[in-house]
Structure formats: C-alpha cells, structure tokens
Amino acid sequence: MADFKVVVSDPETGDTTQVEVDEQDANRFLGRELGDTVEGGAVGLDGTELELTGGSDNAGRPLRADVAGSSLKQLLLEGGVGFEPSRDGERKRVTVRGREISEAVAQINAKVVSGDADFDALTDDE
C-alpha cells in the first residue's frame, strides 16, 4: 500500500503545508504524472484543485518531468531538476526517476491551482 507525504503550496499567499496521505487517498495519486491535476479532497482541501509539480523517491532522487514512466534513468545533465552546476559547461551523470507517480515515490509536491486553500483547517485536524 502506498504512503506519501504531499507538500502543498499556495502561490498566491506563499503558504506551504505538509500532509501525510495513505490508503485510499494515496491511491488517487498513483499513475498520475507531473503536471496533472488532482482534487484537493485527497489531502483534506475540499473544493480545491492541485497541480502535481514534483517529488522525490525513497532515496531522495527527484522526479523529472521530461523522463517518461516511473523507472530510474541515468541522464547526463547540464542543469535543471537533479543537478545544479557550479561552473559553466559542467555536466554530470545523475540518476533520476520518471514523471509518473508510483509506490516508490515518498514525497509529492503540489500547488493550488483553483479554489481557496485553508491550511489552518489541516493543522487543526492533526
């Protein structure tokens, strides 16, 4: 059974909160890809819509939007998600995970696209 930490941010206010989801709520994320939208009810934000923006797996490897599937890939990166070069022209081979959410994912990053995100209601329930 899948368990995720979902980090939800509201770009309008700059607020961020972390919610743990499991069982049926976690199944709503399985098979989705980065850029897809999910109803906020999965994390307790009824009436909102969330866009999946990123995440990482159990070992801390990032999800990368330009890699298909959910498997691990080794890419030669010049920058972007997974590698920050320290000088011009630097490249590095990095292991990243594809854009599809699978059971190997530990954290999912999402942002509020529509609706009113009341993060205070989430913290009162915990």
Automatic annotation (TrEMBL):
Protein name in UniProt: Small ribosomal subunit protein eS6
GO terms in the biological process aspect are: translation
Family note:
Belongs to the eukaryotic ribosomal protein eS6 family.
Q: Name one Pfam family in it.
A: Ribosomal_S6e
Q: Where in the sequence does UniProt note compositional bias of the Low complexity kind?
A: 45-55
Q: Which GO terms fall under molecular function for this chain's record?
A: structural constituent of ribosome
Q: Which SMART domains match?
A: Ribosomal_S6e
Renumbered residue ranges of the record's region Disordered: 40-61
Q: Which NCBIfam families match?
A: PRK04290.1-3
**GO terms for cellular component:** ribonucleoprotein complex; ribosome
The UniProt keywords, alphabetically, are: Ribonucleoprotein, Ribosomal protein
Superkingdom as given in the UniProt entry: Archaea
